[in-house]
Design goal:
Elements: E1 2-3, H1 5-12, H2 18-27, E2 33-35, H3 38-51, H4 58-75, E3 78-80, H5 84-97, H6 109-121, E4 125-126
Length: 138
């Protein structure tokens, strides 16, 4: 499976969707992957959550980074490079499903990168976002 940032965050923040996401990962025959561009979104969102309304500190970022790295290790998830193919597909995805395209999916650029990563790798997309339900990956 290709893991989107929303799935990582749901697992790390103990969202009610986390058990289902973990179950789907365990049922997958292939080791999961994500793009390296997922890291900043997950780590910074997690650090912001840890800060709980105050300005985040370098310690918040360090702890969030450690939590993300530990989850990657636990899931045996690899971070792949964003290739030219993935970045081009992300742009095409934004033109169809993106916020600016006016499509009901309203995918952000981060969503478009996840979509492109999953689509180009031929893997199902693991996510905790309603946005992807409006795409052909649903």
């Amino acid at each position: 499976m290709f893991i989107d940032s929303s799935a990582f965050l749901a697992i790390l923040l103990a969202d009610p969707a986390a058990p289902d996401l973990l179950s789907r990962l365990q049922a997958s025959r292939r080791k999961p992957v994500t793009t390296a561009t997922t890291r900043p979104q997950v780590v910074m969102t997690l650090a912001d959550s840890r800060a709980r309304g105050r300005s985040m500190t370098p310690e918040d970022v360090q702890l969030a980074t450690e939590a993300y790295d530990e989850l990657l290790k636990l899931l045996e998830c690899s971070e792949i490079m964003v290739t030219n193919k993935i970045s081009r597909l992300a742009v095409e995805t934004a033109a169809v499903y993106g916020v600016s395209a006016g499509h009901p999916a309203q995918l952000t650029m981060a969503d478009c990168m996840a979509y492109a990563g999953a689509k180009s790798s031929g893997m199902p997309l693991l996510h905790a976002s309603e946005h992807f339900a409006e795409t052909d990956l649903a």
